């Protein structure tokens, strides 16, 4: 489940350690990035010239790492679908793949 990310990138500040982050905004030569190292994520602000970003290789979508059983994942999907459609419907393991 989602080992390649669309939004999360590996940020390296000029004067600091790399971290997985999501860009919040970029304006006036400044960039705001959510640092995903902590929970909740922490907003960090840099000068655009003082941080670089490259493809993420460390951050993993938490459900990938938490070792969910297929049935648990099916139940989560059923819950999200029920909440978004208003109709309760079972999701079976076969539908995951
Ligand atoms: C069982 C719980 C979760 C489910 C079902 C879930 C579901 C999803 C889905 C469907 C997407 C893709 C959205 C899209 O394609 O636009 C996504 C992306 C994402 N989720 Fe979750 N999520 C869960 C837990 C979490 C948690 C705990 C975090 C903690 C920070 C998280 C952070 C993210 C991030 C950062 C992305 C974007 C990744 C990227 O492509 O760069 N998710 N999630």
How would you describe this structure to a colleague?
- By secondary structure, the chain is an alpha+beta fold.
- The protein folds into two domains: 9-55; 67-96, no CATH class.
- It has two helices and five strands.
- It has a five-stranded antiparallel sheet, with no helix packed on it.
- The longest helix has 16 residues, at 70-85.
- The N and C termini lie close together (11 Å).
- The mean pLDDT is 94.
- Protoporphyrin IX containing FE binds at residues 5-8, 22, 61-63, 76, 80.
Write the element-wise H/E pattern from the N-terminal end onward.
Answer: EEEEEHH
Q: How many domains, as an integer?
A: 2
Tally of separate helices = 2
- Could you tell me which ligands this complex binds, including any ions or cofactors? protoporphyrin IX containing FE
Average pLDDT number: 94
The secondary structure category is alpha+beta
In a nutshell, what does this entry contain?
This protein has 97 residues and is of the alpha+beta class.
Label this structure with key terms.
97 residues, alpha+beta, 5-stranded antiparallel β-sheet, 2 helices, 5 strands, 21% helix, elongated, binds protoporphyrin IX containing FE
